[in-house]
Amino acid sequence: MLKTSISLPKDTVKTWVTNHWAIMRMYARFLRVVERKRKFRREVTRQYNWGNGRCVIVKVRFTPKEYDSLHMVAAGARVSVSYLIYYLIQFWERMSKKSAKFVVGGNYAPKVLEWSKKRVNFEEKLTFRRAGPRFFPPRRP
Fold this sequence. Notes:
Blueprint: E1 2-9, H1 10-24, H2 27-37, E2 55-62, H3 64-77, H4 81-97, E3 103-115, E4 120-131
Antiparallel strand pairs: 1-2, 3-4
Helix pairs in contact: 1-4, 2-3
């Protein structure tokens, strides 16, 4: 597990802390929705969660696969990982009211093409697939 921190609005911190494992079970499905609806953006600044004392720093743990997948999509969409997690929480709240009939799995695969003093060239792929719940046993904290 990788330890890091994110910034969340105060009103969502309790939801995140109490339901972290259930929320992260939907992260691949959420990233698929983000990649379908948001454009790959360049030449713009990043979007972050609001400051002004409305946000709280929360310590989190991600698996390397979750961490890399979130960062890849956040970099492509030019948003922060905290921003993605905030909208993932909202997505989870909406989806938990519906009965999700399938689970989406994501396969993150990085490939370094060249890493030298003169050039950095690498490729990241995130492939989504439908999978039944039997492939994703409940996570334990």
